[in-house]
Design goal:
mainly alpha; 5 helices; elongated; 134 residues
Length: 134
Amino acid sequence: ILCVVWSGRYCVETGAHHHQVWICASAVYATGGFPLYFASLGAYVYSGYYALLSHPTLPPREVQWIITIAVVNGIGAYGLYCWTLEACSIWCWAAFSFGIYFCTKDAVVWSYLPPALTSSSSPSRIITSSSSSS
């Protein structure tokens, strides 16, 4: 918010590739150039990564898939559109990728578990000690 106030950028712009340049990206760049732009991106990514790793109920394999999808999308979006400040508006790539993942995660995530951890009748459930004794 301070960058928006300092830079005087209050309107969304259209970038060189006709994607939206968000006010936050434009204001951060106008205030501190690419060093501040990348520092704010790093802080944003680190906080999301830390929040994901500290989530107590997600299985490690699912965390790995989510991080992989995020990294691939981030490299693609920022590799192509960072220099025009349009990378923030390519959220649709991530939304599409995560949509496919969450619709198919039972087949994708659980197919990589060792057979001893999955039930032959229901591959999307992990057998716990309480469920295996009944």
